[in-house]
Amino acid sequence: MKQRLAAIGTVEALPHRVAAFLSREIDSGELNPGTRLPTEQQLSEKFGVSRNVVREAIAQLRADGMIEARQGVGAFVLAPEQRASIRIDGEALKDTENMERLFELRCILEAESAALAAERRGQEHLDAIKAALDRMSGEERWEEGSIDADLLFHREIARATGNSYIHTFISFVCEQIRRSIHYARLTNPLHDLVDVNVGEHVRIYEALVAGDPKAAEAAMRAHIIGAAERVGVKLPAARAKHTGKGK
Amino acid sequence: MKQRLAAIGTVEALPHRVAAFLSREIDSGELNPGTRLPTEQQLSEKFGVSRNVVREAIAQLRADGMIEARQGVGAFVLAPEQRASIRIDGEALKDTENMERLFELRCILEAESAALAAERRGQEHLDAIKAALDRMSGEERWEEGSIDADLLFHREIARATGNSYIHTFISFVCEQIRRSIHYARLTNPLHDLVDVNVGEHVRIYEALVAGDPKAAEAAMRAHIIGAAERVGVKLPAARAKHTGKGK
DNA sequence: CTTGATTCAGTTGTAGGATGATATGTATCA
DNA sequence: TGATACATATCATCCTACAACTGAATCAAG
C-alpha cells in the first residue's frame, strides 16, 4: 500500500519529502512522543523508496532532535522538551508574526546582555565593537555590508558578556532576523529595509565605554524597539519598563 | 591515507562524526564558502567509511544549511547568510562545567518571560501552571518526579507568554540544565542536588495570578538565583538590579 | 516453580556495488 | 564560428549483504 508523497512543484529530494511527511505527523500529534516509528523496512515499502532514503530522512529528523534511534530496537519520537537541539527552519520565518516574536526574544536577550557587557567588557571588546561601529557608519552605505557590520556589532557585544551561551543564542537570533530581512527584500524589493541607525548604536557604545549597565540596557532596548518598527514590526506591549526614555 | 576520526569515549554514530569533522572544517574557515567538497567517493576513502555514511553526513550538513549539493556537480560550502536554517546543538554546548553560564542565560530569559506571562496569561495557562505547582509540592518528594514538575512549571510559564520562540529557548535551556544536574549526580551521587523550593514557586505563581509583571520578574529572578546557589553555582554579579528583595 | 544462560528473530548500522539523472566539458561537423 | 552530439564526472537512488545490538522466547538446572 504505497503512499503517495506530495509531489509538488518542488523538486525536493526524496529524503527531504519523507522527513517532511514524518515531521508533520509528529507535529500534528499523530505520532505521540514515546511511540516507536515503523521499521525502516516498513517505511521504505510504505513510501515506495529505498531503505537508504528512509535512513537519510530519519538521520535528518534525528539531527533535529525529533526522534531518537536505538540500534536493534527502533526509532522513537521524542517530546519537544527533551530535544537536544534547536532548529528554526527558514520556511518558518516568512510571516510578520514570527518576526514579531523574534524581535521580542531578541529584545529580552540583548537588553540584559548589554547590561552585562557594560560591566564586564575589556578593552579588546570595546575595540572590536568600535571597529564594527566604524564599518557601519563608514564611507559606503552598501546595504549588505552595513547589515553585516550591524550584526557583527551585536555579536561582539554578546561576546563581551563572556558568556558563550549568550553569544550563541544572540548570534542565532540575529542570523534568523537577517535572513528574514533578506527574504523580505526579495519579495518586496521596493521597500528599503536597511536598518542602520548609527545614532542608536553610538549611544549603546558610549554606555559600554562608560561601563553603565542601566544606560546600556536602556539604549539597547530602545534600539531594538526602533529597529523593529523600522522593518514594520510593532512590538506588542514591548514592556516599556524603564524605557521611558524611549526614542 | 585514511584519516582517523576522533574516536572519543562517546559512541557516536559514524555519520555524526564525519559531519562534525566537516562542520569544524567549515566553521574554522579551512573550507571557505563556495568551495567544493571532495566527492563522496574521496570522502569515503579519506575517512575509511562507506559512501552511505558520507551521504548521511552530507545530508545532515545540508539540512543544517551549511552546504548545498548539486546533482552531477558536487557539494558546495554555503556562506552563513545563505543558509536556509540554523541549529543549536546541545552537544556543542556542554564541554565543561558551565552551569554558571547556563543559569545566567536562564535568568535573563525567564525573568523577562515571567513579566510577559504576567501580562498575557490566560486562565488555561494559570491552570496548567497551578497543576505543575501541585505536582511539585505533592505528596511524594520523588526526586526525578519533582524535577520534572519543576521544569514543567517553568515551561508552562514560558508558554503563557504566547511566544513560541521564547518557549523553545527556555525549554532548551531548562533541558540542558536538567542534563547537567543529572550528569553531576552520576559523578557525585552523595551530593543531593534536588532543587525544589516550593515557596519561591508559589510567589511566582501568585504574581502571575495578580497579573503583576514587576513582581513576577522579581520573584523569578530571586528564584533562579536561589536555585543556582542551591546547586552550588554562584551567579557572578547577578546584576541584582531590582532584585533587592532577594532572599 | 524459579532462576539463569542460551538461542533466535527482529532492527538498526555499515559496507559496497549497480544503475539512473544531471551538469559540464570536449570533440566533431556544418 | 557556432551548434550539436558525445564522453565524463558527480550526485541520487536502489539493491543486497553482513555486522552489531536488543528483547524475548526457549530451555535446562536447581
TrEMBL record, chains A, B:
<dbReference type="GO" id="GO:0003677">
    <property type="term" value="F:DNA binding"/>
</dbReference>
<dbReference type="InterPro" id="IPR036388">
    <property type="entry name" value="WH-like_DNA-bd_sf"/>
</dbReference>
<keyword id="KW-0804">Transcription</keyword>
<keyword id="KW-0805">Transcription regulation</keyword>
<dbReference type="InterPro" id="IPR008920">
    <property type="entry name" value="TF_FadR/GntR_C"/>
</dbReference>
<protein>
    <submittedName>
        <fullName>FadR family transcriptional regulator</fullName>
    </submittedName>
</protein>
<dbReference type="GO" id="GO:0003700">
    <property type="term" value="F:DNA-binding transcription factor activity"/>
</dbReference>
<dbReference type="InterPro" id="IPR036390">
    <property type="entry name" value="WH_DNA-bd_sf"/>
</dbReference>
<feature type="domain" description="HTH gntR-type">
    <location>
        <begin position="12"/>
        <end position="80"/>
    </location>
</feature>
<dbReference type="Pfam" id="PF00392">
    <property type="entry name" value="GntR"/>
</dbReference>
<keyword id="KW-0238">DNA-binding</keyword>
<dbReference type="Pfam" id="PF07729">
    <property type="entry name" value="FCD"/>
</dbReference>
<dbReference type="InterPro" id="IPR011711">
    <property type="entry name" value="GntR_C"/>
</dbReference>
<dbReference type="InterPro" id="IPR000524">
    <property type="entry name" value="Tscrpt_reg_HTH_GntR"/>
</dbReference>
